[in-house]
Amino acid sequence: MDSLSSLASLTPEQFFGGVTKAGKALAAAEKKGNVPKTKNFDFSVQETCCVCQKNITPPLKVLRCSACRAPIYCGRECATKHWKYPPPQPPGSIPGPTHKELCPANKRHMERREYYDGVLQSFPWGRLESDATFSFDIARGRFGVFGGTGTGYWSHRGGPIPHSNRGVMESMLASSPYGATIMKAFAAFDHTDGADLLGTRHLTDVQGWKLEPVLIPYLNFPSADKRPALLKSTLDSWDEWYQWRKLSQESPAALLMSFPMTVYRLLVHCLEVTGPTQASANQRRALSVHLLGAEVELNYLPLFAELALLLPYLLPYHDIQLVVFGSGAETLIKAAKKKPSSLVAKSSLTTPVYE
Ligand SMILES: [Zn+2]
Ligand SMILES: [Zn+2]
């Protein structure tokens, strides 16, 4: 109960402030070329069994699947169970896949890990912890953009429940005698994803990114010559994107741009649904992209406009429509009903609001 009661008294200021302080201390130590190898400078995560959710602490040892090395178990019993049965889910939710179903894809993914770790480590802020995880929270802390509502594009829920779909955690707490107290404490971390779209004007690039101007990939340009050049070929790596955007790799922009860039990659490299020659000035083509289960994405929805800079060479004469599905969008639309002058309330499929 001790850890639960300390979680229940955690305020957003303490949580966001503590992580920000740690991120800044880490960045300062790196600058001096001296990161002490102490617990204060290691942001590894507690290993948890993917079936029973138990923390794996001595005398328990981490057990991994010998084929894919991906899931982590507290012991043989959970590992055997997971091979044939999906891990327990909150009542009413769709059961997840079994390990047997996932193992081959896990294996392919884990084989590419070294490559992806290399990409991450090419950024000055892309540090791997001693357990080979990357802390998104600490990375945001370095730049002072780790926070709840009011942190521009970086706004999000935080603390012990980072998602609006609280899933397993909520159902576990519902059956705990301390559940109600803890849920009340967690409510302090609540945040409506996309809350800034309930305002009457879009955030400016500076208000949204909350970074030093040189670290920002601007989407509003004072004049046409300040716009990134029209691409003559596809962008295939972050290096290329940063170069095209004339940004230093010091910028943490990739942390949020990875979402619109995933859509770009899907359109350009994976889905062969359309192509450069499939539309013309007289015959424009509509392309509808559906984002399923969007939550945090709503906080930086304007960044998807990056696609309008990236795609004209590859998909000229295409009208791209982004359709966002999920409970996050529903919550936002309900909130907008009470705010008729908000961006969300004023926009529709035929009348987007750009102001
Ligand atoms: Zn277990
Ligand atoms: Zn496996």
Write the layout of secondary structure elements.
Elements: H1 2-8, H2 12-31, E1 63-64, E2 72-73, H3 76-84, H4 99-111, H5 113-121, H6 136-142, H7 167-174, H8 179-187, H9 205-209, H10 238-244, H11 254-270, E3 285-291, H12 306-310, E4 318-324, H13 327-337, H14 343-346
Parallel strand pairs: 3-4
Antiparallel strand pairs: 1-2
Helix pairs in contact: 1-8, 2-6, 7-8
One zinc ion binds at residues 65, 67-68, 70, 99, 103, 106.
Describe it.
- Helix 1 (2-8) packs parallel to helix 8, helix 2 packs across helix 6 (136-142) and helix 7 packs across helix 8.
- This protein is mainly alpha-helical.
- Helix content is 37%, strand content 5%.
- It starts with a helix and ends in a 9-residue tail after the last helix.
- The strands form two sheets. A two-stranded antiparallel ribbon has the order 1-2. The chain has a two-stranded parallel sheet with strand order 3-4.
- It is globular, with a radius of gyration of 22 Å.
- The chain binds zinc ion (2 copies).
- One zinc ion binds at residues 65, 67-68, 70, 99, 103, 106.
